[in-house]
Amino acid sequence: MTEFSDDIPGYDDENIFAKILRGEIPCHKVYENDDFIAFMDVMPQAAGHTLVVPKAPSRNLLDADAEVLAKLMPFTQRIARAVRTAFSADGVTIMQFNEPAGGQTVFHLHVHVIPRHEGMPLKRHEGGMEKGEVLMANADKIRAALKTTPKS
């Protein structure tokens, strides 16, 4: 894993995702490789809302290394396929925010993967934290789906 550094302008290595990557804060992990981790969003907008987070430090897409970005979409695609399967979703919303005006609240590059069902609106992201046992069960569903999801 890349060490976090003050070399990236505006990157705060004390952000919550950096702390998760260092193991200082627990998460409900779905999948991890050398470059990325996917885990459950604790304030999900729908059941199965998963975050994809590069291990390399960057504030957002605007300052991310091109090599990281090249690997990000195939990893995200695999997670999205598993999320869709696990939750029998009609579709999947993929969101990525940059800077406060763009809706970013955690300043470490990340992608939201949200399963969608026809006619079901998203919950507010600030709607409160989900129970740990629910997040654990949802992570289990996605991990099971990943076993049958082809690698990109």
Under the CATH scheme, the architecture is 2-Layer Sandwich
Number of strands: 5
Q: Please count the helical segments.
A: 3
Shape: globular
Distance N to C terminus: 21 Å
Say what the CATH topology is. HIT family, subunit A
- Strand proportion, as a percent range, falls in 15-25%
For the biggest sheet, the summary is: 5 strands, antiparallel
* Series of secondary-structure elements, N-terminal to C-terminal: HEEEHEEH
The CATH superfamily is HIT-like
Percent helix: 25-40%
| Strand line-up of the largest beta sheet | 1-2-3-5-4
Structural class per helix/strand content?
alpha+beta
Which descriptors would you attach to this protein?
152 residues; 3 helices; five-stranded antiparallel sheet; HIT family, subunit A; 16% strand
